[in-house]
Amino acid sequence: MSIEVKGINKRFGDFVALDNVDVSIPTGRLTALLGPSGGGKSTLLRIIAGLETTDSGSIAIGGVEATRLPAQKRNVGFVFQHYAAFKHMSVAKNVAFGLEIRKRPKDEIRARVDEMLDLVHLRQFAHRLPSQLSGGQRQRMALARALAIEPNVLLLDEPFGALDAKVRKELRDWLRRLHDEVHVTTVFVTHDQEEALEVADEIVVINEGRVEQIGSPDELYDTPANDFVMSFLGPTTRLDGQLVRPHDVEVTTAHSPGSIPGTVRRALRVGFEVRVTVLTDGGESVVATMTRATARGLDLGEGSRVWLRSDCLAPDVPEPLAG
To answer: Which residues form the ABC transporter domain (predicted)?
Structure first.
C-alpha cells in the first residue's frame, strides 16, 4: 500500500511541528523518517497512523483518503519504542490480541499466532510472560503482534532506541530480512543515521518540521541537498571552508598543487581506522580518516608536517577579466 502525504501542517500551540510536508511512500518499500529530536518525524508517523490529527493537508493510504479516518479503520500496525506489551499476558496472547478484538475464529487466531511466532523466531517462548524475555525478544514480539493483523502499513517509532548497540545492530539486520520476506509497506522513525543508511530503501530527512531531502541512502550520502543533510548523514569536517567527508581528505607528507599545509595535532586509532586531526596554517581544525596501513606508511605523529587535499572541494572559479 502506498502512502501519499500532501501539504500536512501541524502545530502544538506556538510550536510548528510540521510545515507543509509532502511525502510519497511507494508500495512495499521500507522508508526511514530521519532527523534530530523534535524535528517532526514522530509527529508525521503518528498522523499517518491516525494517532494525531492534522491542522491541514491530507493522507491517502493505498489510494484511499484517510485524513479523517480513525486509527482502527486504517489497518495500520504500529510498534512503539517501549514495546507497550500487556505484562500479564503470555507472548502468544500478546500476539493474538489484535485478532481477538477483531473477533476472528479461534482456529484462525491460533494458526496466525503460530505463523507469526515462527516468523520472529519466538515459538519456543510462546507461553512466557514479556518480563521473561530479553529486550530484543520483546521488540520482536511487538513486531509479531503488529504483523498478525495483516496490516496494509507497518509503522515503527524508534523501534530499537531502548536497546544496547549490539542488540540494536542485530535487530535492524533482522528487520531488513523480515521486510524482504513480508513486503509490507514499512515506515520507521529513527535519529540514528547508520540505522537509516543500513536498513532503508528510501530516507526522508526531516528537520524543524520541514522535509530537507528524500532519496535513497546512496543519493543522500553522495549528493546531499544542503549542509544540514550532509552533516546529519555521516561525519563531516571543514577543509578550506567547505564541508567534506573525513574519508575524502587526502593526507600527504609532500606538497602538491592545490594542497593545504598543516600540522598534525592528534592521531587516534579507532578500530580498523585512524582519525588524524590537522591544524592548517590558516587555522582550520580538519579531521581525516584513513586505514591503519596508510597511517603507518605516512609515519604520522603529533607535530608532523602534512598537506591536505580533497577531490570533493569545489574548484575555484577565476574572476572574469574586466573590460
So the answer is: 3-233
